[in-house]
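Ticket closed. Logging final result for Fumarylpyruvate hydrolase.
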Amino acid sequence: MSNANHVIAPPAQPALAVHGVSKTFPVRRIWCVGRNYLEHIRELGNDERNPPFFFAKHADMVAPDGATIPYPTLTKDMQHEVELVVALKSGGLNIPVDTALDHVWGYGVGIDLTRRDLQTASRKKEQPWEIGKSFDLSAPCGALRPASEIGHPAKGRIWLSVNGAERQKGDLSEMIWNVAEIISRLSQQVQLGAGDIIMTGTPAGVAALVPGDKIECGVDGLGTLKVTIGKAM
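Final structure:
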């Protein structure tokens, strides 16, 4: 569709890199799973008996491997959360668990950057988490790898280090909900579609970041992601 069909120029299509090829994966929506690793639930003092739940980030909040991410406004406590990223090639409503993985195009590693002080304040006021979770460049993601090549990872080390010191570590097998269950449950809430990505929760070890911090994280078999925290916006 040409620009002549719009009153302003259409915004650029957010997209993620794909390992080994020049083509990219177009991002439609970003869904995130809250509280999907038991030790992370405990470190934040939340009730581990509550099931995980879902929240969203905007598609244009993705950032590529190697990006410098300015320290965001309004916060004094931005924290890192390394996550397995699931990229969908198709979707639907009320997807059964036993066919959920048929909708997956591939996987990658990402970081759910969080303005923790704002998230905590919102939770205490029983307000939406958006101010704490959705901000510019808050969803760095590394290059995706297709499931047709690597399968569907259900175990493997997931980790994050800051300035060379390991902070987060866990295993995909520790997820309370696995990928198929996440897709199935999320599809009860919203009709999923091609281009949706899902960030599947983080293991324990989340902590504050400051300008100048260099982050490296990874998931076994998927590669790594590196970003730097820049000066305040």
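Helices lie at 38-43, 116-124, 130-133, 147-150, 179-189. No further action required.
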